[in-house]
Amino acid sequence: MSNNDYIIDVKDLTKKFGTFTAVDHITFSVKRGEIFGFLGANGAGKTTAMRMLCGLSYPTSGSGTVAGFDVTKEGEKIKRHIGYMSQRFSLYEDLTVMENMELFGGIYGVKSKDLKERASDLLEKLNFVEERDTMVGSLPLGWKQKLAFAVATLHRPEIVFLDEPTGGVDPITRRQFWEMIYQASSEGTTIFVTTHYMDEAEYCHRVSMMVDGQIKALDTPANLKKQYNAASIDEMFRILARGAKRGD
Amino acid sequence: MKNQFLQFVKKETLHILRDSRTMLIALLMPVAQILLFGFAVSTEINNINVAVVVPQWCEGVRQSVERLSANPYITYKGDIAPDEIDQNLRSGNVDAIVVFTHDFEKIMNEWRRNGVSKSAMQFIMDASNTNIAQAGTGYLTNILASDVMAASSMVETHMLFNPQLKSAFNFVPGIMGMIFILICALLTSVSIVREKETGTMDVLLVSPVRPLRIILAKMVPYFGLSCINLTTILLLARFVLGIPMGSNLWIVILVSLVYLALALSLGLLVSTIAKKQVVALLISAAVMLLPIVMLSGMLFPIENMPSVLQPLSAIVPARWYIDAMRKLLIQGASFPLILKDFLILIIMTILLLAVALKKFNDKLE
C-alpha cells in the first residue's frame, strides 16, 4: 500500500484499445478530503481513466491504488469502497425515494438498521422527509440530483466519483449541489468530479486537464491561471485544448 | 449478500407492478389469444354452401338431397338449373354444386343388382379457396358416397386424439410457444436495455453487485409472470376449450420450465446486442416472433414447407416445444415419446445461455 495520505495514487496508468491509446501514462495523486476536478474535452480519455479508477476496467499497464486497493487487480474491492454518480440521472424513477435508498443501501451491504437511521438523517438534511414515499420520477430535476448524491454517499464511501453531475441543471441548483459537495468534503469524503462547466472547476481544490489521453496540467485553479497567464480556467482550457488532435 | 439479491428482485418486481399497462398486457394477452384462436379463428370448414342440379327427381335423389340439407356442416341452397351453375359459382353464392345424372335411379339399381358402377353424380367445386374446396369434397363424399360408391365406403377413417378435428387443439401448443417467447424474451430484453438507456446500468456496474446477479434478479419476476401465464393457459385449455390433457401434467410443466429458461436466455442475448429499447423490441418481434409463427409448425405444417425451409425450422426452438406440447396435451403421450424434443430444448438452452453470458461479460470489459 502506498502513502496513506493519498486516496488515489496512480503511476503511468495506460489503457490501449488495439492500437489506440485512450489513456497515455497518466500519473497523479488525490489527497483525502480533497475536491479534485478532472477536466478534459470529449474524447480526451476522461471516461476511460475514470472507469479504471472505479474498478470497471483494468489498465493495460501502469500501477496504483484507489482507496488502498490495487487498480490492476482489486477492481471488486475498489467498487465496494467508492461512491459513484453518473452524468445521467441514475436513480429509478418508478421507485419511491425510500425504495431507491433501500435498494442502493442493499447493494452496498448497508445493514438495514443502519440504513434506516442514515436514510432518515439524509431525508431530514435534504428537507425530503415529506417526499419519502414520492416516486422519484415526479421530483424536480434539482431535487433528483441532490437525492442521487445522497444515495451515492449512503454507504459512507471514502471517495465519490461524480461524472458530470450537474449536466443540464439550472445555475441555482448547481450552486446548491456544490454546497453539498463542500459539505461532504468538509466531513472528510474525497470528491473526484468531472465537469463541462469551467466555472465549476474554480470551486475545486485542484484540477487536472486531460488532452489526448495525457494529463497536460495539474495544480490549484489559482496557480494554473497564473502559470498560463489566463483570466479564467475556461481560457486556460482553451489554450491547452488548442493543441489537441482528437476530440471535438 | 442474500439481502442484496432480494432487494434486486423486489426492485424488478416493483418495476413490473408499477408499469401496470405492460403487466396487464402480459397477463391478458395469453387469455385473449387462447380465446381468439380457440373460438374465433378456426381452420375447420363450416357452412359450405351447396346447391344441387337435378334433371329428374326420384326417390334416390330426394334421399341424397335430404341428407345434404340435414348436415350441420353444409348449408343447402336449393336446386338450380344447369345453365345457372357458372353464374352461381362466380357470384360466390355457392361453394359447391352436386349434379345428379338424369338416370340416377337406373344407375343405382344396376349397381345394387349387378355391382356395375357408373358415375351417378358430379361435384363441381369452387377451388379459388383450396381449403374450402378440399374440405367440401371430403364432406360431400362422406355424406353422399355411401349410397353411390360402395368402393369408398370400404375405407373407413378413424380420427384419433382429436376426432372432431377441432382447430383449437392445434393452436394451444402454438400459442404457448409464442407467448413465452414474447413475455420472457421481449420483456426481459427491453427491461435490461432500458437500464442501459437511462444510465442506471452504469451505476449498477460500478457497484459491487456481480453482473450475473443483476441479470438473474431481472429474470426472476419475469419467470414468475410466465408461470402465472402457464397456469392460465393450461386452465383455459382444460376447462374452456376442453383439451383432454392426459395424466402427464408434470411433464408439461417440466418441459415448459425449460422453455421459459430458453426464452429468458434469448432475451438476455438480445439485450447484449441492442442498445436501444426500440431495437430490442424490433429484434424480439421481427427476428424471433416471425420464425415462430411461420416456421415452427404453429400455423403451417412443417411437412408442407419447401425442403429448403425445413432444416431452417429445426433451429427455431418453438418448433420443438410446440411439437412436445402437441404430443403431451393432445395425444397424452408419455415422457419417452417427447424425449427428443426435450433434449433438443435443453441443449439449445445451454448453448444460448452460454453465448449470452459470454457476450454480456465481453460487453463489460
Task: Describe the protein's architecture and organization.
The complex is a heterodimer of chains A (248) and B (365). Chain A has 248 residues and is of the alpha/beta class. Chain A has helices at 46-53, 75-81, 97-107, 112-125, 141-152, 171-186, 198-201, 221-228, 233-241; strands at 6-17, 20-31, 35-40, 61-66, 69-70, 82-85, 159-163, 190-194, 206-211, 214-219. In chain A, strand 9 and strand 10 form a beta hairpin. In chain A, helix 3 packs across helix 4 and helix 5 (141-152) runs parallel beside helix 6 (171-186). The model of chain A has no long low-confidence stretch (mean pLDDT 87). In chain B, strands 2-1-3-4 form a four-stranded mixed beta sheet, covered by helices on one side. The model of chain B is unreliable at 150-154 (pLDDT under 50). Chain B starts with a helix and ends with a helix. Chain B contains 15 helices and four strands. In chain B, strand 1 (48-53), helix 3 (59-70) and strand 2 (74-79) form a beta-alpha-beta unit. Chain B has two domains: 2-41 and 166-364, no CATH class; 48-154, abc type-2 transporter like domain (abc type-2 transporter like fold), CATH 3.40.1710.10. The A-B interface holds A 54-57, 76, 79-80, 82, 84-95, 99, 102-104, 106-109, 112, 161 and B 1, 3-4, 6-8, 10-11, 14-15, 18-19, 198-200, 202-209, 364-365.
